Amino acid sequence: MDTRQPAEVTETLHTPAWTRRTYEDLIDRALALLSAGESVVVDATWNLGAWRSAATEAARRHDADLVCVRCEVPPDVARSVSPPARRARPTPVPW
Q1: In the chain, how many domains are there?
Q2: By C-alpha distance, which of 59, 60, 46, 30 is closest to 95?
Q3: In this structure, are residues 21 and 15 in contact, taking their beta carbons and an 8 Å threshold?
Q4: Residue 94 lies in a domain
Q5: How far is 39 from 46, CA to CA, in rounded Å?
Q6: Is residue 65 within 8 Å of residue 59, measured between CB atoms?
Q7: What is residue 5's three-state secondary structure?
Q8: What DSSP character marks residue 8?
Q9: Is residue 92 part of a domain?
């Protein structure tokens, strides 16, 4: 059983190293499925151009269509549905 407090888990999961590992794994899994002829949907923030480029390249290599969906809400709405810890520090996504 994981005995860490929620803040400790959040700090661990939101490090650049963990984020890199997560996106690399997402793209590797997508590539494996595309290689097997499967369709793939990958749901992620894609907040860095490098990750969007990697996904674009993966789709291109497999001659797959890439469709990006961007969802936006006003900041006050986002804060109203976010956990209290996130309401205090919204992080803009630089597109």
Answers
A1: 1
A2: 46
A3: no
A4: no
A5: 19
A6: yes
A7: coil
A8: H
A9: no
The 10 Å CB-count burial string (b at 16+, else e) for 27-43 is beebbebbeeeeebeee
Helix (H) or strand (E) holding 85: helix 84-87
pLDDT by 10s per residue, the chain, length 95: 556 555 555 566 678 888 899 999 999 999 999 999 999 999 998 889 999 999 999 999 999 999 999 888 898 888 787 666 555 555 555 54
Residue 95 in any domain: the answer is no
For residue 93, being part of any structural domain is answered with: no
CB 87 within 8 A of CB 78: no
How many residues are listed for the chain in this entry? 95
Domain ranges, residue 17: 6-87
Cα torsion 15, 18, 22, 27: sign: positive
pTM of the predicted model as reported, rounded to 2 decimal places: 0.65
Q: Cα–Cα distances in Å, from 9 out to 44, 58, 88?
A: 19, 30, 18
